[in-house]
Design goal:
The chain is of the alpha+beta class. The protein is 52% helix and 12% strand. It has helices at 5-43, 57-60, 65-71, 93-104, 116-123, 144-152; strands spanning 73-79, 82-87, 108-113. A three-stranded mixed sheet has the order 1-2-3. A hairpin with a 2-residue loop joins strand 1 and strand 2 (82-87). Helix 3 (65-71) packs antiparallel against helix 4. The chain is flat and about 80 Å long. The model has no long low-confidence stretch (mean pLDDT 86).
Length: 153
């Protein structure tokens, strides 16, 4: 099979373009990780590279997804009551609020700084978190509002 020269040139150009985009993404990711390392050093908090540190679904599910995203953090490891937390900026009020909430639940949080991109990638684990299900009992549950509607009929 002979491929026309114009098509071959277009295929090669697309291949080089996607390779270039991939390389630019790698450079951007490395720069973001260096920035996270600098923030950690400035704040005196350890840095964690989430590309090399596995995150546990069991840990992720401890913090509600909405609170984690609002605070820019994620729980990455848990052992008994100790919990490792990776945050973009540990000094924000939202992050402090989540940490205080964990402490009220008797967790012992250990804080780390990570890049936003790495934390966002770990957020994908929320898709694997089992949501609370109700036990099938054969009973009917009717809310107060619905009960009032039924009484009016």
């Amino acid at each position: 099979m002979i491929i026309p020269r114009g098509i071959l040139i277009r295929i090669m150009a697309e291949s080089n373009k996607s390779g270039l985009q991939r390389k630019l993404q790698e450079i951007n990711r490395a720069a973001e990780e260096r920035d996270a390392e600098r923030r950690a050093k400035k704040l005196g908090i350890p840095y964690v590279d989430l590309r090399k540190t596995p995150a546990s679904i069991k840990a992720v599910e401890v913090i509600p997804e909405e609170a984690a995203k609002k605070a820019g953090l994620v729980a990455i490891q848990i052992s008994d009551r100790s919990i490792a937390i990776a945050a973009v900026d540990p000094s924000t009020p939202e992050t402090r609020e989540v940490i205080q909430s964990l402490e009220r639940e008797r967790y012992v949080p250990k804080l780390f700084v990570a890049s936003r991109l790495a934390i966002e990638q770990v957020w994908h684990l929320y898709g694997f978190v089992a949501h609370e299900t109700k036990k099938i009992t054969g009973e009917v549950e009717i809310g107060q509002k619905r009960l009032e509607e039924l009484r009016q009929k």
